[in-house]
Amino acid sequence: MCGIVGYVGKRDAFPVLIDGLKRLEYRGYDSAGVAYFCNNKIKTVKVTGFIKELERELGNIEDNPKIGIAHTRWATHGEPSITNAHPHTDCTGKIAVVHNGIIENYRALRQYLTERGHKFTTDTDTEVIAHLIEDVYNGGTDMPFWKAIRGALREVEGTYGIAVLFSEEPDRIFAARHGSPLLIGAGEDEYLVASDAAAVLRYTNRVIYLDEGTLATVKADSIVISTLDAESITPKIEKISLSLNEIEKGGFPHFMLKEIFEQPQTLENAFRGRLNLEEGTARLNGLKDYFDDLKDVERLVITACGTSWHAALIGEYLIEELARVPVDVDYASEFRYRNPIIKDNEAVIVISQSGETADTLAALREAKRQGAPVFGIVNVVGSTIARETDAGVYIHAGPEIGVASTKAFTSQVMVLEEIALLLGRMHGYSMAQGVDLIKEIKRVPELVELFLKKEDEIGTIRKIAEKYYMCNNFLYLGRGINFPVALEGALKLKEISYVHAEGYPAAEMKHGPIALIDKNTPAVFIATEDPLYDKIVSNIEEIRARGGPVIAVATEGDEQIMELTDNVIYVPQAVPLVMPMITTLPMQLLAYHIAVIRGTNVDQPRNLAKSVTVE
Ligand code: G6P
């Protein structure tokens, strides 16, 4: 989704801005632009398509500004075009704005401003911000510009992270946020403004996370922050522990493949120091202050979007199985508008890789409004969701750059295992059972590594991809705890190879999807050994009887399945409770190889965004 980078300092701004935008590319975008000062006048350069184009354009410009703002746009209002690309300016061209988020009352504001003589040139919601600031500024006498920004933002409904240049104050960037992420990177006599830490990391690891409803005036040697109610705020500098290596491809052709292969490590990071073998429980210090609530909890709601929602479904199985506490899983976008029922002794868990997903954030706020304790399972440290939850557990998967989530998903499941174990031990799961489960959990990184090193299995996946990449429909079927894995497999394929795929509980396919089966519609079954194995074999037979090709993910040593299916991918043996973290791997790799053969943009699939900061 839209990305913002701003720079003020001693360096040439263009290379810093371009480098920052490239680091934000993964968020998804369709056009890009820059605004800077030339002889105290604002100039803008915009392109559609890739940042490389913008880099080329800037390369032809002789100016060497030391200050500028830049943006990658993910279209919401108005098609992707040079006109609609940010930065947007006011009538006089003295104010330039880049924006991430959505201005919900932009129609009313646009009409109001048009009636007051402002001329709009784009279809975007963002343009109203530039004109509104201009209008407020011109309406006051001797009004400092930052006050005009504040006045304008008070009229705005919706979400925004913005960076603004004003040609009468060409030594500074104004930055403000409400609902969309924005941080300031603090270097030596230089500052960066960015939507995400990856954009500033090359220059500094010291950041100031802007709080909701704050406005910053950023000069090369100073920063002043206040709330929109004019209360001054002392900037709090935090050190981020990201390294540049973590946000580079490290020899892999795609970030997605790199991230798939990182899973042995990321899974281990998700449980390091958190498993207490002696007592057969999980040690989750982040939740410590809420242990009493968790002991008394009578129902949990888990809410999330996309892949994180699939992890939530696995969490439902795990928590209900281990703790016998009822769990409801809800899409955050549905939860937030449903007037959800949350009673005393109930709690909410939100799951988000980015920690910025607008619907998940709104669901979290709704749950808090209703007085429920809200816990987070988040990857990005310092993100809005991480900061607004009452307590939580970081998954520590490191930066996930590929838009299609892979390592974050398995790590979310790992953390849900820990939460289920902790709750289980509070609600009757025995110590002996806990000890056994911990031993199985600890084997997972090793089993994942074993699978990823198996040339023949990876080769089988590649061959399956070559055989079926032309198919236009796939079914993904699983049962029990592996049903959400089927959903995730189908989502991965849709996201990166643009092939239609549906995930279903295997038994449910008889009630509709089986009508789709023909020789060109492969069905991918998760058919590992568990109590439902025989049932899933019957479902495989049903597809075979109708001439559909069957691909099975099965447990090593299962020879029977060979005879029943066209292709088998073997995964190492593990207990069903941890199996989703293993069966997910062939799902990710199959989608990856099909996408590569089909020639799609694996890391930045069309129309998708990594961090969905609009609802
Ligand atoms: C977007 C991403 C998905 C992700 C979903 C939820 O759609 O493309 O990969 O699963 O948002 O994101 P979150 O950051 O909240 O987990």
Helix content: 25-40%
| Major sheet characteristics | 8 strands, antiparallel
CATH homologous superfamily identity of the largest domain: Aminohydrolase, N-terminal nucleophile (Ntn) domain
CATH class of the largest domain: Alpha Beta
- Number of domains as seen in the coordinates: 3
Determine the number of helices (DSSP H or I, runs of at least 4 residues): 19
Strand content: 15-25%
Low-pLDDT runs of 5+ residues are none
Can you tell me the CATH topology of the largest domain? Glutamine Phosphoribosylpyrophosphate, subunit 1, domain 1
Distance between the termini: 12 Å
CATH architecture of the largest domain: 4-Layer Sandwich
Number of strands: 27
Bound small molecules, which ones?
Answer: 6-O-phosphono-alpha-D-glucopyranose
Strand order of the largest sheet: 3-2-4-1-10-9-11-15
Radius of gyration: 26 Å
User: What average pLDDT do the residues reach?
Assistant: 95
* Secondary-structure class: alpha/beta
Give a brief rundown of this model.
This protein has 615 residues and is of the alpha/beta class.
Structure, described:
- With about 625 residues, this protein is of the alpha/beta class.
- It folds into three domains: about 5-245, Glutamine Phosphoribosylpyrophosphate, subunit 1, domain 1, CATH 3.60.20.10; about 250-450, Glucose-6-phosphate isomerase like protein, domain 1 (Rossmann fold); about 460-605, Glucose-6-phosphate isomerase like protein, domain 1 (Rossmann fold), CATH 3.40.50.
- Helices cover about 35% and strands about 20% of the residues.
- It contains 19 helices and 27 strands.
- The strands form five sheets. Strands 3-2-4-1-10-9-11-15 form an eight-stranded antiparallel β-sheet, covered by helices on one side. A seven-stranded antiparallel β-sheet has the order 5-6-7-8-12-13-14, with helices on one face.
- β18, α9 and β19 (about 325-330) form a beta-alpha-beta unit.
- The chain is globular.
- The chain starts with a strand and ends in a 17-residue tail after the last helix.
- Bound molecules: 6-O-phosphono-alpha-D-glucopyranose (G6P).
- 6-O-phosphono-alpha-D-glucopyranose binds next to α9.
